[in-house]
């Protein structure tokens, strides 16, 4: 983000960070004041999502409104910087982090969110999880969804470098299943959908940002 000629919106000094939807210096009093103003004007808070996938966008809106109140959510096309279907916690987390930070750079917002799905090996099984990162310009908070065992035939193809969504489309017959109910929705007869998993990861990532929990983190 370009801070050239930007001034702190609280005190007028040179801006060094963008936080709570405002350009700020690093003075703690200015940061605290911006935080108070942001909370007071929560209906105007902008949340950027590092994806144009409607499932992720809706999940972020529902998760934020459940935990922090009304927000405006904007989907942003960004790169994840990882493989099309990450393997392992670290790569999946990195994809979510990159999405959040890249979205933050593109949109003037209070928070930016990245959600990445990946496979985690547990024994001889591969578990699909979603990791969410919420970034505010300084700090990130992280949350995970429930996990479910990927069908062996799909996991094997992913390990060969084929995106799981494409295999899931072939199995289910549902086009763009990743932008719809997801493989989990097909496997559970819609009892749990991909949006549920994404929303769950968002809520988990927002736990440290709840006012009553702030002092714990």
Automatic annotation (TrEMBL):
Alphabetical list of InterPro entries matching this protein: ITPase-like_fam, Non_canon_purine_NTPase, NTPase/PRRC1, YjjX_NTPase
Summary of the function given for this chain in its UniProt record: Phosphatase that hydrolyzes non-canonical purine nucleotides such as XTP and ITP to their respective diphosphate derivatives. Probably excludes non-canonical purines from DNA/RNA precursor pool, thus preventing their incorporation into DNA/RNA and avoiding chromosomal lesions.
Keywords: Hydrolase, Magnesium, Manganese, Metal-binding, Nucleotide metabolism, Nucleotide-binding
Gene3D superfamilies tied to this protein: 3.90.950.10
EC number(s) given by UniProt: 3.6.1.73
Protein name: Probable inosine/xanthosine triphosphatase
SUPFAM superfamilies to which the protein is assigned, alphabetical: ITPase-like
Catalytic activity: ITP + H2O = IDP + phosphate + H(+); XTP + H2O = XDP + phosphate + H(+)
Subunit architecture: Homodimer.
NCBIfam families: inosine/xanthosine triphosphatase (TIGR00258)
Binding positions for Mg(2+) per the UniProt entry: 108
Organism: Methanocaldococcus jannaschii
Top-level class of the enzyme under EC nomenclature: hydrolase
């Amino acid at each position: 983000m370009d801070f050239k000629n930007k001034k702190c919106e609280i005190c007028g000094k040179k801006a060094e960070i963008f936080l709570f939807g405002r350009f700020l210096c690093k003075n703690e009093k200015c940061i605290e004041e911006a935080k108070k103003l942001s909370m007071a004007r929560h209906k105007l808070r902008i949340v950027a999502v590092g994806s144009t996938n409607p499932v992720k966008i809706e999940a972020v809106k529902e998760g934020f409104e459940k935990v922090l109140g009304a927000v405006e959510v904007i989907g942003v096309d960004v790169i994840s910087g990882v493989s099309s279907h990450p393997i392992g916690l670290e790569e999946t987390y990195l994809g979510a982090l990159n999405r959040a930070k890249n979205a933050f750079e593109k949109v003037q917002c209070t928070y930016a969110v990245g959600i990445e799905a990946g496979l985690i090996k547990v024994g001889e099984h591969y578990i699909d999880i979603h990791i969410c990162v919420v970034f505010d310009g300084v700090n990130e908070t992280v949350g995970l969804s429930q996990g479910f065992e990927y069908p062996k035939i799909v996991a094997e193809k992913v390990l060969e470098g084929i995106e799981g969504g494409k295999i899931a489309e072939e199995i289910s017959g549902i086009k763009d299943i990743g932008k719809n109910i997801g493989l989990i929705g097909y496997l559970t007869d819609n009892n749990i959908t991909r949006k549920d998993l994404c929303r769950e990861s968002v809520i988990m990532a927002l736990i440290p940002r709840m006012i009553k929990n702030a002092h714990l983190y």
